[in-house]
Design goal:
This is Family 1 glycosylhydrolase. This protein has 435 residues and is of the alpha/beta class. Helices cover 39% and strands 16% of the residues.
Length: 435
């Protein structure tokens, strides 16, 4: 097995978010909004031009998983072999905030098994892929879908939240098992939001403590860690059975995992005495909060998402990039095995200014490139950062050397990959490349 030639992962992502809003009538397909289906070749060119070797990426779930055991691989069959030929390592993002119409939403108890079957079929079809994020930001997806009422089931109860969370984490675990059955050396990078809640007043200490315990639930369950006593009561009071809880304790695959944590300016919150929350901006910062998560799970870390909007001075995003990179180096120098950094995403996003709650078509200047595929100043700065640090970190870093087989080094050619035929009559409206 060839070692990772870079020693440190510099990554970006092409976002494949697909939550539904307005009672399921509107699909917020971020790849469609950002023009990726039309311009995917140009997007991959940009990845290479910036000098990025790793890409968080996956086909849209809702047009690839089209029924129980039925898949439309047409888009994936174009894009994934192309990334392989380019030597870009894909960190496969299989489920990003939404499910196909036939599943409905995250309250559906059939979702974990259906998704695991899809993950296994995916791994069989594309066996050269080693790095996976089966379910992106499990905690955020459950919160926004089932506690805040923003997406998908659009519910607002603790019971709905616990139901969504247990289905999301179970889906992630079963998918990991299914992928490992095909690719025993697979590695899983959990991309999860790293949060902190600050009490505004002494009266807010209780609510803040509860929220700071709840922020760990998805990873506690995923990594088989016994949850705090208050969270155990919370889970059981809101529908999780003891057998379900013990499933999570007994089925973790922690030794195959890298803890990916995402950090934005919006990840820290003020909490009022009545439990209401509001943005606090950056108070502790990435390094402090990452140490909290690392001390809890003791896993290698990757900074899997960050960005900032390019503001009126056109240097705000560049300043944020430099600040986050300084935080990464601080974490590394403090002895935490941090293996990578990600600016997310490659291009500007659309409608994230409302958290994908409104279908406004408003462009958010958050990318390394704009939607005309021209590099922003932060894209140029990231390109320079990669050039400057790639030659340094492999020899001086305390990071783990990940046992990684690059796609083009995997035995066999594209033609050797198993061809899993789509079931007859399984027509779909999956996006077709028109470029």
């Amino acid at each position: 097995m060839a070692p990772n030639p870079t020693g440190f992962i510099f990554a970006t992502g092409i976002e494949n978010s697909i939550p539904t809003i307005e009672g399921g009538r509107v699909r917020m397909d971020e790849m469609e909004k950002c023009g990726h289906y039309r311009h995917w070749r140009r997007d991959f060119d940009l990845v290479e031009e910036i000098g990025i070797r790793f890409l968080r990426y996956g086909p849209p779930l809702h047009t690839t998983l089209i029924g129980p055991g039925r898949y439309d691989w047409s888009f994936a069959d174009e894009v994934l072999p192309d990334l392989r030929r380019r030597g870009v390592v894909t960190i496969v993002d299989l489920c990003h905030f939404g499910v196909p119409e036939f599943i409905g939403n995250f309250q559906n108890p059939d979702f974990p098994e259906l998704f695991a079957a899809y993950a296994g079929a995916f791994a069989q079809r594309y066996p050269w892929l080693q790095l996976y994020t089966p379910v992106n930001e499990m905690s955020i997806c459950a919160l926004f879908s089932a506690l805040y009422g923003w997406w998908n089931e659009q519910m607002r109860t603790d019971r709905a939240f616990v139901t969504a969370l247990k289905h999301l984490v179970k889906a992630n675990l079963l998918a990991m098992h299914a992928i490992l059955a095909v690719r025993p050396d697979a590695l899983f990078i959990q991309s999860e939001s790293s949060e902190y809640f600050h009490a505004e007043t002494p009266g807010a200490i209780g609510p803040a403590e509860t929220m700071n315990a709840r922020r760990f639930l998805s990873l506690d369950l995923n990594y088989g860690r016994r949850v705090d006593s208050s969270m155990y009561e919370y889970l059981l009071d809101n529908g999780m059975t003891r057998d379900e809880y013990h499933f999570f304790l007994n089925n973790n695959l922690k030794h195959h995992c890298i803890m990916g944590n995402d950090y934005y300016q919006t990840n820290e919150h003020h909490v009022a005495a009545d439990g209401a929350t509001g943005p606090s901006g950056e108070v502790f910062g990435y390094a402090v909060i990452t140490h909290q998560y690392y001390n809890r799970y003791r896993l290698p870390v990757m900074h899997t998402e960050t960005n900032l909007c390019e503001g009126p001075n056109c240097d705000e995003a560049v300043r944020w990039l430099r600040k986050e990179w300084a935080n990464v180096l601080r974490v590394r120098n403090n002895g935490v095995p941090i293996v990578g950094f990600t600016w997310y995403s490659l291009t500007d996003q659309v409608d994230w200014d409302t958290g994908l709650r409104e279908n406004n078509g408003r462009v958010n200047a958050l990318g390394l490139a704009d939607l005309d595929r021209n590099l922003r100043r932060v894209g140029e700065a990231y390109r320079d950062l990669i050039r400057e640090w790639t030659a340094v970190l492999p020899t001086q870093s305390v990071c783990l050397q990940i046992p990684m087989t690059l796609g083009q080094d995997y035995p066999g050619t594209d033609a050797d990959a198993p061809q899993l035929a789509t079931a007859p009559g399984s027509a779909t409206n999956a996006p077709k490349n028109t470029e």
